[in-house]
Amino acid sequence: MHQGSLNPLGRKAHMMRTIDSSQDNTSSAPNIRVVARRDFLLASAAGLAGTYFGGSEALARTPKSDTKPGRAVTDKDRDYMRQAIQLMRKAGVVDKTGGPFGAVIVRDGEVLAASGNSVLRDNDPSAHAEVNAIRQACHKIGSPHIQGAVLYTSCECCPMCYATAYWARISKVYYAASWRDYADLFDDSVIGQDMAKPYRQRKLEPQQILQDEAQKVWLEFRKMPDKAKY
């Protein structure tokens, strides 16, 4: 969690760059600096438009909370969030299985899963609280999709956790601590910055090879009457 699916525009732009990476964009990247992690979900579009701001300027321009009115919060919602916060403390302070992050997933009044971060215990960089909880919930119901479920997370979702919740088709996310509350300890803004750059300037330097061979598999897959869809 400390380290979303991307919005449709971001995914489309990413797909276009992947398909035509032989014509890698070598133009200079925008002057990208640290921004609040909340802006990650707009990273692709913002990167293309060159709308990143400097660190202090971005912090000043980022509201403490979204101005769009959300769903009315109930006492039950607060109870579930307190469970997530308890898991947060258990993981990060008591058991030290990973960072202080906890998550609870609820659907129709039933707790489907509850977990803390276990990155250190499991030696698994993907073992964030939200991912752990989503895996548990999906396994419990026997489906990769948990439509109608609500995710209560002790902290704002990182890109990976948001993406996992998106693909699981979770319907709503509540969070307690905001990114700025622990940006001195865990800060994922660099991921959004990196993904907004041309491929050759990214940290992992994505480079396309054997595209034609991969395309053959896609052609074969498309012809399958019972191809997997999710």
- Rounded average pLDDT: 79
Number of strands: 4
Which structural class fits the helix and strand makeup? alpha+beta
Shape: globular
List the total number of helices.
9
- The order of strands across the largest sheet is 2-1-3-4
Please estimate the helix content. Answer: 25-40%
Stretches where pLDDT is under 50 for at least 5 consecutive residues are 3-63
Largest sheet: 4 strands, mixed
* Terminal-residue CA separation: 23 Å
SSE order, as H and E? HHHHEEHHEHEHH
- Estimate what percentage of residues fall within beta strands: 5-15%
Rg of Cα set: 19 Å
Give a verbal description of the structure.
This protein is an alpha+beta fold and 230 residues long. Helix content is 40%, strand content 11%. It is built from nine helices and four strands, in the order H-H-H-H-E-E-H-H-E-H-E-H-H. It has helices spanning 8-19, 43-49, 55-61, 75-94, 119-122, 129-141, 159-167, 189-195, 211-222, and strands at residues 102-107, 110-116, 150-155, 172-177. It is globular. The protein starts with 7 loop residues before the first helix and ends in an 8-residue tail after the last helix. The model is unreliable at 3-63 (pLDDT under 50).
